[in-house]
Amino acid sequence: MPQAEPTSDLRQALTERILVLDGAMGTTIRSYGLDEAAARGRRFTNGDKDLLNNGDILTLTCPEVIGDIHKRFYEAGADICSTNTFSATGLAQSEFFVEDPRAQGGRKDPEFFQQILENAFLNDLAWEMNVESARLCRQWADATGSASGGRRYVAGAIGPLTVSLSNSPDADDHAFRVVTFDQVLAAYRLQVRALIEGGCDILLIETIFDSLNAKAAVVAAQEVFDDCGTRLPIILSAAVGRGGETMISAQKVEAFWNAFAHVKPLAIGLNCSLGPDLLRPHLEELSACATTCISCYPNAGLPNPLAPTGFDLGPREMRSSMAEFAHAGLLNLAGGCCGNTPEHIAAIAAAVADIAPREVPVVG
After folding, report:
1. Is 357 domain-assigned?
2. Cα within 13 Å of Cα(133), Cβ side
3. Residue 364 domain-assigned?
């Protein structure tokens, strides 16, 4: 008997139980003890800039590590793993491969980023990183799904970039922006096309600091959907400060929902920036106004350089917090961001396994 289409199967699952998202790619990568030589591999030995902090490049230079991380998160109980593509755009990768004009007394501006968008090496690199990352995650989703008898999903991770469309970095020229909306849109279009090519089930526009950047990602997705005749569900997830505002565009969570409700996302939620205790009131506010599923994958507490993962909370503490969220009727999808290892995700999966998902309001 043929399987249901991934989208319909996913939506059905969300009505039955709380689905589990994966944990922190960066935190888990660090546990492998890779060095600069490993990050460069044979392919990037002659680069001028260090690549060890370019986690997305590891899909090409250390695919066995990234594949093992996907495998471990799926086996820990994740229903959905995200691709290793958080910064896999030409704009973001230029930080690692192009000389910063500020080093010579210049500045980054739309003219600089237009050159980045026309850089064949960066375009080809971004395409390859996204396609191969999606294929690698797809491989382990299918393998673990077959072994367990349950479907596993791949979410194409789309991060927020290192440049803002909302704010000017120039105190003397508030109208100045280092990059234009159309330039950000072009970078995201390429990423979305490549993630679809690689076999993603979902697009995850995450860690949203700047809602205008996220708007460009959403428009990119819609344009690509129209071009290729394929539509994937979209999950939107914001990173907020202690006051519940997105870090750059300063939208409170209700305004964040109102800005994206027309997209009809599969889910909207919060991730990163805060631990579960500080995130809870903002999650409660979002749950009260959003008429779609709610996702939440907090950091494992606040940063702590003395902790094994660099964050305060261990698996037991994350299990307790996420169980409380679930019992309060706040969750449809649960996972972990910075500091959350496969052990944390196993604990979170156990915490929410027997708790009913949040009831999604019916809009008449």
Report:
1. no
2. 30
3. no
